[in-house]
Write a structure and sequence with these properties.
about 0% strand; elongated; 18 helices; mainly alpha; Isoleucyl-tRNA Synthetase, Domain 1; 2 strands
Length: about 375
Amino acid sequence: MRARLADAQFFWDQDRKIGLDARLPALASIVFHTKLGSVAAKVERVEKLAIAIARDLPGADITASVSRAAKLAKVDLTTGMVGEFPELQGIVGRYYAIDQGEPAAVADAIAEHYAPLGPSERCPSAPVSVSVALADKIDTLVGFWSIEEKPTGSRDPFALRRAALGAIRLVVENGLRLPFHRLMELASFHYNELQSGMLVNFDPADLLEFFAERLKVALKEKGVRNDLIAAVFALKRADGRGEDDFVRLLARVDALAKFLASEDGVNLLTASKRAGNILRIEEKKDGRSYDDAPDASLLRLPEEFTLVEALRDARDRAEAALKREAFAAAMAALARLREPVDEFFDKVTVNDDDPAQRANRLRLLSRIRATLNTVADFSKIEG
């Protein structure tokens, strides 16, 4: 032990003779990955992405501190201390930063940018630390996705599952409203910008699906149903992209879980499954879809008129609530459909002998499905 402490004292004294800025050029000789360039290139990318993340965070302007922390975050890899004691990377970088007079937020971010390394490790909460830690993880994931080095089965040599889970925790535990899709595209752009168009195969949707799977694993221990997460992740925004705001997603999942625990929710899920099954069978048989709007001139029975009006009202109320992110109110709007939907199935024959009536009633089933799917993809929900 005395000998090891003597070694540490020696490296501590020697390393401090060279300032952190003077060590930056040495990062160019350390390989991050043979296809992804040097650690110096990674530092440059992470700095750009971390600044973009910081600009999305509420509060004071921290971009200068974020830029400085990102620039210095990996420098301790060039020190004798980390060469001898690799488990101290980040930790010793913080001490060297403090020793040369760096601000506390910068020094702390150097130590915390690898965190969280596991489910039990404390998650950084300081804005500078969060910005750099999140940028580092997104850069890693986008890079390895771009060169098709994804985890397979139990094999994950680059700890990408851990990186994704860490990114999720940074966002969720700090309640950050960040557009992951845009951040992933920005990370990909930085690879192309700084490395001569090396990366051309990045698919944000594929990586977002990986995040969804990690989120399911993370929440399973908390009793959150995987099918509810899948039902919300399956939703498409107006721009055609999937949900990428994890805080909003979890709020929707929570509201959906409470709704499905109610009698109205259970009955509407059953109705959704029934409508979906009939549509799937009849659309396959007919070789066409019935997603177009019902023809009002073909409505005959009171239950049809009532359902059409109820669907219109429920959809308007749900969409207005969703714009406000009032997810419980959106579910309450759907709950108003229970009685008219039940009445429709009890009193109306969908497969009528009249082809025009049959087609119109199938359109009504499609409208039931579409209205319920404004809050979640009910086909993904078990039960």
